[in-house]
Amino acid sequence: MHDLVRRIDAATPADRDRAIDALRALAITGVVLGHWLVTALVIDSGTVHSASPLGYLPELTPISWVFQTLAVFFLVGGLVGAQSYASARAKGTGYRRWLGARMARLFRPVAALLSVWSVAVVVMLAAGVDQDTLHTLCKLMLSPLWFLLVFAVLTAITPLVTRMHPLWPFAVVLLVDVIRFVLDGPGWLNSLNVVVGWLVPYSVGAAWARGGLRSLRARWAMLLGGAAACTALVLFAGYPAAMVGVPGPAISNLDPPNLATVTFGTAQCGAALLLLGPLRRVLARPVAWAAVALVNLSAMTIFLWHQTSMMAVTALGLLVGEPLPGLHTVPDHPGWILARLAWLPVFAGVLLICWTTFRTYEQARPRRTSRVVRGAWPALAGPVRRLH
Known about the structure:
The chain has 388 residues and is mostly helical. It has one domain. Helices cover 66% and strands 3% of the residues.
């Protein structure tokens, strides 16, 4: 392990901004832990259905404020996408070739996930698993894919986003919410926010790439202004306080993203930009940087397989013969949260197995010319230099 840490640190270019990778790793980690904490699979009369502790314990709502970190991921995505496109243009690489390379990195891991789950569904059907259970499990498995589809659309329009001010998509989200909630407009209009809502942090990242948002004043304005606006929307405009979807309420802040989600994400982006300095100091330590680098090498694999890991542990727990607290029981009391926290290391262990098995679908084939010292863990040697 010491040798691996040393090789990763030695292979990292001196001019690489490690804090950017840290923001992406923190965003992915937040989403994974958030899903594991607020998603329960309850066994009722032999049927599995999903539930959320936030629906039973509203006092746990602040959990969603900590772990809903998608805006930070789109912020980094906009920065990296704009930088990558600018670099490709400087080298004379055409748009199609550039986009094809970006899409391949996104969707190679998806093929592996869908292949495994296709087999799993056939096996469950043959075993007589009921349709409601299959629907619940497949919905959880497929839920991360909406994120990839939105990210793919935003990546495809990166050339336009590099010239876009973030206030334009923000204005569209505001207009859609006014039509939706004040004028009782058509429901189909809400679907615009699925893309435009996440275009706001993505365009903030693109603005960052072209030299904007460098001043502390701008970053503090994003943090404080976004937080104040989101608070006002929750307290006075009827928006839900939870920043994730919760079964029951008629309005969800996340499906589709609305003005509360966008203002909350703006505050998160401001906080992320303010954290760059401290993160750079922490990541000067080789051990901390190695952990961040390994997460970034397989960020999509971790994201795609984390729900499957939770479901696998839940299914294996059924072999005990009775519902296990924090795994199969209704999340309607604080004891469930304590029990679920005890299960998180188990989820992480199964996710590690999935990562070991499927990470090669995301990482390109190792290069023999890699600057990383050869030896243990050679499969990691090639991709260490190109986390983006």
